[in-house]
Predict the structure.
Amino acid sequence: MNKNLTHAAILNLESRKRTALVNSLSGFKSLNLIGSISKTGNTNLAIFNSVFHLGANPPLMGFIIRPDSVERHTLQNIMGTGYYTINHVNESIHEKAHQTAARYPSDVSEFDAVKLTSEFTNSFIAPYVKESTIKIGLQFKERIDITLNGTSIIIGELQQLYFPEKCWKDDGYLDIEKAGTIAGSSLDGYHRTALINRYSYAKPDKKLEII
């Protein structure tokens, strides 16, 4: 038997229950740790499930950050230095990644608090997560404030990229599953993945092929 909720019923749900429900509706999400550093040298690490592809030329990625009605160290650091990293979450670090959502004081590094390793490479100012297998260094390009709910979209351009060479296919496809990347659901669900198929480029007059 299916459950039906009206707009009014959704709004009348207890706050945490409503948040968990609505966060489930968009399906499985990417899980990433965003690394940043303040202008005074304090590192920060926070888990996000809202990272998305925005374009390949130039190579852009975005993520959504909640209202800055309270301290948002990730946002403050990005706006202050202009650089940050996106690091895929894998199964071996997912519990530590989840713990980075706790509200630590600005002078406490989540790297230290959850025992993940900060890694600075090729003179990039923002810290990577050493234990992550796919790591992306970005330069801040644009902030879009959404007046409807006070959130913001942060857009960055890729500057550096690290991943296992064995996971990169000849056609450019990056096998993130082979690299150990996992997926998330709602605010606290963590999932292994299993590829069903890859298909040829869709055209009206051509039958799909499994590749």
Remarks:
- The CA atoms of residues 24 and 186 lie 4 Å apart.
